[in-house]
Structures are given as C-alpha cells and as structure tokens.
Amino acid sequence: MKRNMEQSEVIEEMPAICADELAAVEFFENKIWNGTPRCAHCESTNVYMMRDAKIGQRNNRFLWRCHDCKKQFTVRVGTVFEESRIPLRHWAYATWRAATSKKGVSALEIQRQCQISYPSALFLMHRIRHAMTPEKNGGEKFKGIVEADETYIGGKPRQLKFVRRRQGPRAKDDPTAKTPVFAMVERGGRIQRDVIADVSSKTVKEAIRQRVCPSATISTDECNHYRGIGQYFAGGHVSVHHGIKQYVNGVASTNTAESSFALLKRGLHGIYHSVSKKHLHRYVGEFDFRWNTRKMNDGDRTVALVQGTQGKRLDYKRLIQGE
To answer: What are phi and psi of 120, to 5 degrees?
Structure first.
C-alpha cells in the first residue's frame, strides 16, 4: 500500500517537476541513486554537494564532488542524459509522456510543448527509446507457452520499374518494401520483438532457440518456416491454421502476438505516421517496454524508465548509423 502511495505521488508531482529545473534534478537524483548519492565515476558514496560560496545554494550546474576520486559529476553522467544541454525538466516531461502514453508520443509534440528545436526533440526521444530497449538477448529466457509470429511494417511496395525510372537502371531493390518484425510472447508474460532481415526458417528458428527455454511449448501459425521447431523444445510445437480460419486449437494460438502487433501498428500509423527502417528497432523497443510493464501503474512505469536510463549511452554517431 505504501509503495502504491509513493508512486501515485510521483504522478501528482510530475507537473511541478516538469516546470522547475531544481525539482527535476532532485527527482532524477532520488530515483536514479535511490536516495543515496554516489559517484558516477567510482561508485563511492563518499560525496558532497557543491554549493555557490556567495549565496550558499546549490551550484548552478548541480555538481557533486567525490572525496575518493576527487572528480566532479552530476546525475546526468552515466545515463542517456549525459552531454545533453537540454534542461532536465524537459527530459522529465518527455520521460513521463513516453512511459504513460499508450501509443507513444511524437517528437513534434515534445518540440511544441517544451519549446525546443525538432532535431533536439527527436534526439531526446531516440535516447529515451534507447533506455526503454532491453539488452539484446538479455534477461531470463521465456518459459511456458511461447507464441511466435511475424508481421510486416511499411507501405505497399511500388513497382520496381518506377523505382528504376527515378533512381536509374542500377536500382535493384525496392526501398519501400515492407520490413519484417518477429515477435516472441510468453503467454501472460513478457514480449520481445526484433526487426529481422528475413523470415527464413534459419533466421526464425535461431531467434526462438536463443530466447526460449528448452522446456517451453512453441505456439505458431501454419507457416512453413516453423516446421521442425518442436524438436528443440520439451513441450513441442503446436499450431493453428489461419488459412481455414482456425484461430484457436487447444492451447495453440497466436492471438496475443497479433494483439501486440495491432497496438504497434496503431501507434506507428496514428502517432508517428512514418518510421524509417533504420530506426524501426527503437520504436519496437519502446512498445515492448510498455507491454512488459503493462501491469504497473503510471508512476511505477515512469520510475522504471528513469532507472533504466543508467548505463546507457546513445551518441549522435550511433544514432545516424541506426545502431
């Protein structure tokens, strides 16, 4: 009960946090350091807050100094906020919106409401999505009944002759072709979706074997690329046949995975409108975070996102390369 009250207070306090820089700094310090300030360089707790000698208040850069390593630091160091000149009150607002908006929040909206430039808002949101995305193949493997399914993101492919007319006779691939996204969903639990190069049997089976516990049961549709996957799992492989309008067959179903794809596509179409293939994995990670924290209230989810900003960096070079 106490925890729920604490997290409800987070939501009540967010408007004030997003309007005052000192309140935003103290909010991030409290949630990232869990109430105990520590050095971002050596993890020592033997630190002190630097103050302005003339007025006795906090340094206007909100600096701390470590007694052990003698280095200065702020709460930004070692997080996705590092080396950003955007005020932390804007980071607090964008983090709050990203964590609590069911289908996400666009950079254009953050630009308007925070009165910052669009490139700054876009980079800010990409950093927050980077914080939302878990480490590749990290965490406990999926157990129980695991649904596997794929979908395709993007507009309808244009005829190649029109692409060649615009780009010249050397154009080989249609740049508007759809991008495959593969999902694994633990029934009643977590989800992981990945942007993959293709939906060949080798690619799909390798992804499943990396993320699913050998004791699990794999539930899919009738696609050929899942054929033979059951030999790697104690629970075997069950499937439904969508071609004959069969959507549930005992424990076999892909309805949960398809529901997650519906939410993803509604967000991409209704909020973001157009997402490049290079950055699609960031948006997928954002939706996965909200799915995996769906049982939390908004306060818990906001705090979980703030704490997930630690130990992650996304510099401009990595951003433009789509890493």
So the answer is: -65, -45
Q: Is residue 18 scored above 50 in pLDDT?
A: yes
Q: How far is CA 113 from CA 28, 108, 283, in A?
A: 20, 9, 21
Residue whose token pair is 């908004």:
298
CB-CB contact of 247 with 228 (8 Å): no
**What span, in angstroms and rounded, lies between the C-alpha atoms of 304 and 143?**
23
Rounded to whole angstroms, the Cα distance separating 235 from 250 reads 14
Q: How many helices (H) and strands (E) does the chain have?
A: 11, 8
Cβ contact 199:225 at 8 Å: yes
DSSP summary character for residue 157 = P
Report residue 316 as tokens. Answer: 């401009």
CA–CA dist 63, 178 (Å, integer): 48
Per-residue tokens: 67: 């007694």
Find the mean pLDDT for residues 125-131: 95
Neighbour-count burial of 22, counting CB atoms closer than 10 A to its CB (0-12 exposed, 13-18 middle, 19+ buried): middle
**SS3 call for 193:** strand
159: pLDDT confidence band, cut at 50, 70 and 90?
Answer: low
pLDDT at 70 over 50: yes
Percent of the chain with pLDDT over 70: 90
> How far apart, in Å, are the Cα atoms of 25 and each of 2, 44, 58?
24, 20, 11
